[in-house]
Amino acid sequence: MRPKGSAELLQYRRRQALELLDEGRSLNEVARIIGCNPSSVMRWRDARAEGGEEALEVRFSPGRPPKLTEGQKRELEKTLLEGPLAAGYRTDLWTTARIAEVIERAFGVKYHRDHIGRLLRQMGWSHQKPERRALERNQAEIDRWLAEDWPRVKKTPAGWAPISSS
Question: Is 52 left (phi over 0), alpha (psi -120 to 50) or beta?
């Protein structure tokens, strides 16, 4: 495993190792001084012999390419904004499993539902949980109760005041 550090630091270590080799030190001695494996020193030596100093430059691996293109992500965002009902679901709630199904249907790309959260964060979306509320909820009555009744029953520093029965 490669040590942590900037590209400049890694290149400096490689060049330092090769300078020590050029001074006539052994592979094992150079590896011990630099703090790496002798096979790494040998690989750097061979790379310089084949490709010169440019061969010692650090090349970072970009990783696996994304499954969805930027255009597909924009199209997915439009679909998500239209809502689950427009996508053919019976309830107005997106789940990661549903989003994975939509992606597979629309783009032919399979994502595990656990990865969908990471994908959505990359797109600038956040996880949101719906509030559970009764369908029969009467917001006007709740607001009236909070304004009129709640101040009378809540505990106050002065003490509890009983509700009148009138």
Answer: left
Question: How far apart (Å, rounded) are the C-alpha atoms in residues 88 and 86?
Answer: 5
- Give mean pLDDT in consecutive 10-residue pieces for the chain, a chain of 166 residues: 74 90 93 92 90 80 87 95 94 92 95 92 87 85 92 73 62
How is 35-75 classified by DSSP, letter by letter?
A: TS-HHHHHHHHHHHHHH-GGGGS------SPPSS-HHHHHH
For residue 94, give both structure tokens: 């997106």
Task: Please name the residues in contact with 2: beta carbons below 8 A apart, sequence gap of 6 or more.
Answer: 10
Neighbours of 31 (CB within 10 A): 19
A 10 A CB-CB count for 115 gives 13
* All structural domains of the chain with their residue ranges: 7-56, 70-122
Contacts of residue 116, Cβ cutoff 8 Å, sequence gap at least 6: 96, 99, 100, 103
What pLDDT is stored for residue 1 in this prediction?
54
